[in-house]
Write a structure and sequence with these properties.
- The chain starts with 8 loop residues before the first strand and ends with a strand.
- The protein is built from three helices and five strands; from the N terminus they run βαβαββαβ.
- It is α+β, with helices and mostly antiparallel strands and 83 residues long.
- It is globular.
- It has a domain of 52 residues.
Length: 83
Amino acid sequence: MNTKTFSAHHLSERTVIQRINRKLAKESEQLHKCRKNSRTYSNLGHYYIVDTYRNTIIRSGIEDLDGLARDVGVIAQGETLAE
């Protein structure tokens, strides 16, 4: 029996954010990380996306960076976000 095993390749948060931003830049969008001690953290959440052309927030309340990266298509099978 021929069995292939895949070892997970762990990616840092910074690497995933850079990959997402390169993908979003094609649509004039950019992912930002909100600091927990910021006054706007309760409104924006951990991550939010800005339309750089209009300078407006188009999506907020993003808590799952791994899920966003998979939705955008920047994390391949066998890659995981390092904790």
